[in-house]
């Protein structure tokens, strides 16, 4: 019989064990977060509610009241905020703190009748150092316990006009008058225990934060969201290092070029150029006298030292084909330099020519086919005619 008793006990205990295991497997609900601070809490009676958003914070919550109705000023739907503690002037919340927003936190299932909780959200980065103010307004409320009502004679008890102990019964005229005075005093006492609407100031201090550092990328996206193309990929930059580089210029595509490291552009003035009709790149003239064009120097950025460039833009095509030239030379190759002659000679050999051709609207220039003879040729022509006449 012992084993039968043990089996029955185990059978009865098994469902209880299963139920306990099932309850142990259920997830434990997270602990509810503490309610937001309320402005009418007695500890804030003299100072009002002050909150601070530190440099690592971007949200703060508050309530106007722990229980009962209360109104927020300015109302949340106006998206305004007070700019001083008296709420004498107001401005847009977004103007007071760009990116800030005030919202209501929906109450939980067990908090349907709880006062409204407000949540202020501000940017975590790049916000100013400022103060925001709100006022909580409450309806009239008692300031002290209500006065005790006047004594009344128990129901059914009548005053005895013939009593000589000085106590007047409620049924006597004097007793009724006394009772009326007591009731009136109690009513006045109750009315005096009410006060006009009260207020509580909510001050929110926002500490300044620096803008978020943007990662250094070679190309920033444009307004359409696609990466912008760097200028050097839109128009190729021609770099002159040595020898002669031949290129062209048109009205649609500007010419971008630069000298290699340690080389400098000649002419040094961007308003001048070498006229290259004879192919020697040595006759320095005003750029405007040869071509309606403009040369601009693009200064390099600090991280791109020695990688600036020049941009030659054609403003109006010439009538005839035009040739111009620039030089990239070592600055110490100047004949007036203090360097020894041997060094200056070697330096003068380190130069590069940039020859630019511009297509004209009317074809070749007249200078391509010389029609004016030089003085030497003219003298030879006269001598030939003289000897031919004599002979």
Description:
It is built from seven helices and 20 strands. The chain is α+β, with helices and mostly antiparallel strands. Among the domains are: 37-140 and 199-206, Immunoglobulin-like, CATH 2.60.40.1320; 238-332 and 349-358, SRS domain (Immunoglobulin-like), CATH 2.60.40.1320. The longest helix has 24 residues, at 2-25. The chain starts with a helix and ends with a helix. Mean pLDDT is 73; it is low at 144-170, 185-196, 225-229 and 366-374.
Question: Quick recap of the structure?
Answer:
This protein has 391 residues and is an alpha+beta fold.
Unreliable spans are 144-170, 185-196, 225-229, 366-374
How far is the first residue's CA from the last residue's CA? 168 Å
> How does the major sheet shape up?
6 strands, mixed
The CATH topology of the domain at 37-140 and 199-206: Immunoglobulin-like
Give the helices and strands as they follow along the chain.
HEEEEEEHEEEHEHEEEEEEHEEEHEH
Task: Write the SSE topology.
Layout lengths: L1 H24 L11 E2 L10 E5 L5 E5 L7 E3 L6 E3 L7 E3 H4 L4 E5 L11 E5 L8 E9 L34 H20 L5 E9 L24 H4 L2 E4 L2 E7 L5 E5 L4 E3 L5 E4 L7 E4 H4 L1 E7 L10 E8 L5 E8 L11 H8 L2 E8 L16 H16 L1
Parallel strand pairs: 1-3, 2-10, 11-13, 12-20
Antiparallel strand pairs: 3-8, 4-9, 5-6, 7-8, 9-10, 13-18, 14-19, 15-16, 15-19, 17-18, 19-20
